[in-house]
Amino acid sequence: MKRLAASCFGLGWLPGAPGTWGSLPVAIMFGLLCHFHAPSAATFIVMATCALVGAIVCVKFAPATIAATGRNDPREVVADEFAGQALTFLVGPFLAGGATWAAALLGFLLFRIFDITKPWPIRKLEKFPAGWGILADDLLAGVYAGAALFLCGKAGVIEYVSGLLVSSDGSSLGVLPAVVLGIVQGLTEFLPVSSSGHLVLLENLFHFDPETPEMLLFDLILHVGTLAAIFVVFRKSIAALVANLLAWRKYGTTPLDVYRRSPSVHILVLAVLVTGVTGTLGLLLENYFSAARGSLMMVAWMWVVTGTFLLITDWRGNTRMGLRQFGVLAAIGIGLAQTVAILPGVSRSGATICAAILIGLRRRWAVEFSFLIAIPAILGATAVELLKHFAEISSGNLPIGSAAAGAVAAALTGILALKLLMKTARAANLKYFAFYCYLLAGFVFVYLSR
Q: Are residues 305 and 190 located together in one domain of the fold?
């Protein structure tokens, strides 16, 4: 539990740059406070509280991680970045022109630059003992970044960045919102936390209409980015699948012999069966699913359901079923689970992985099969949306820069999310996503009770 707290509940275990992940929640929190025009005093208090909590957690719990890993500054400890980033935004109420999303982005980038480059005397502070050495350098990096952000506000840099991120007439999707939506899509499409549920929540919080021609076109572009992430992460498995399919003749002379003996044909047939079950039931129950999408309360309860099944799946013992023993009935069960995932708040990846593991499929194969069937699922959903809204999409006016930024953000974030999910599913650590689903549900219940 100490290591979990010091890693900011798993952020420090994410691949890539753990310090960046540890800083990101504070920047998002600051941006949301700016977006909702929170009073300056409230913004200052929230950031000061984040800095204090992060500092206390780092000093008290980082030594446990040091002892467990044998490293003086373990990468997984990111409570120090959390505290340092919050310290940066203490200048928010004093920025010229007021704090904005541009200030949040600029403050985030400045803190990461100072934290990585460690100009004098930041690096010297790392010599302090135990958690103090881990914390002190980030706090000073936060002070440097805060001073730089204040000067940027005085010099008009924040206002200039705002102009770059948002279109001049305010009618088109700016680069910053496109990147944010791309990151949300990349994370929630693959992590078992429901991308559709997040979309409904964002619609309610920010009062935007996802049915405009611009947003429909942008949604299709984001799905291209997430598909690219699947092909990048599973490129070896997909190449092996295709190569084995091309050699189907060596497995027999009848379709039944080929199905029984060829691993790739066997998997492909089951994937088609799963997709067929989902597509058929999805069309039959389309009206019900559409009605459920309009209820934020329904989304919250489905997050509770998703979290509960993730916990149950973690409690499942070792699973030993291989792909050869994986049959038609199991595929139908996964198809039913994927159909339920059309409901906002139920994760497609979570539902299919949980169903496969609970049926008995090995965890590794459960993850790979889940994302193999994700390819036709995403392509099919995209094609349906394209046909249904072709006239609106063709009239959409989306800036090329915003479209490219969103797609790249979705692809890169999706790659990280896929690698994280593979690691956590194999180690039976899906419970961390369960806790996140419960937190989201709790937030919605409080939000609706206002």
A: yes
Instruction: Determine which helix (DSSP H) or strand (DSSP E) holds 275, and give its type and residue range.
Output: helix 263-284
Q: Is the pLDDT of residue 170 over 50?
A: no
For residue 448, with 0-12 CB atoms within 10 Å meaning exposed, 13-18 middle and 19 or more buried, which class applies? exposed
3-state SS assignment for residue 115: helix
Q: Identify whether residues 114 and 210 lie together within a single domain.
A: no
Cβ-Cβ contacts under 8 Å for 385 (sequence gap 6 or more): 216, 219, 220
Helix ranges restricted to H, 36-72: 40-69
Residue with tokens 């780092």: 58
Write the DSSP string, 369-415. HHHHTHHHHHHHHHHHHHHHTHHHHHT----HHHHHHHHHHHHHHHH
Model pTM score: 0.68
* Upstream peptide bond of 121 is cis (omega within 30 degrees of 0): yes
The token pair at 325 is: 């023993």
Note whether 250 and 392 are same-domain residues: yes
Strand runs labelled E in 209-353: none
Indicate whether 242 and 282 sit together in one domain. Answer: yes
Tell me the three state secondary structure of residue 17: coil
Asked if residue 190 and residue 129 are part of one domain, the reply reads no
Contacts of 149 by beta carbon, 8 Å cutoff, 6+ apart: 88, 89, 91, 95, 103, 106, 107, 110, 158
Residue 266 and residue 353 in one domain: yes
Same structural domain for residues 344 and 227? yes
148 pLDDT band, cuts 50/70/90, is very high
* Contact in structure between 185 and 417 (CB atoms under 8 Å): no
Cα separations (Å) of 224 from 106, 277, 310, 355?
28, 24, 27, 26
Task: For residue 170, tell me if it sits in a domain.
Answer: no
Domain of 39? 2-165
Residue 187 confidence (pLDDT) above 80 = yes
3-class SS letters over 174-213? CHHHHHHHHHHHHHHHHCCCCHHHHHHHHHHHHCCCCCCH
**End-to-end alpha-carbon separation of the chain, Å?**
33
Residues 276 and 382 reside in one and the same domain: yes
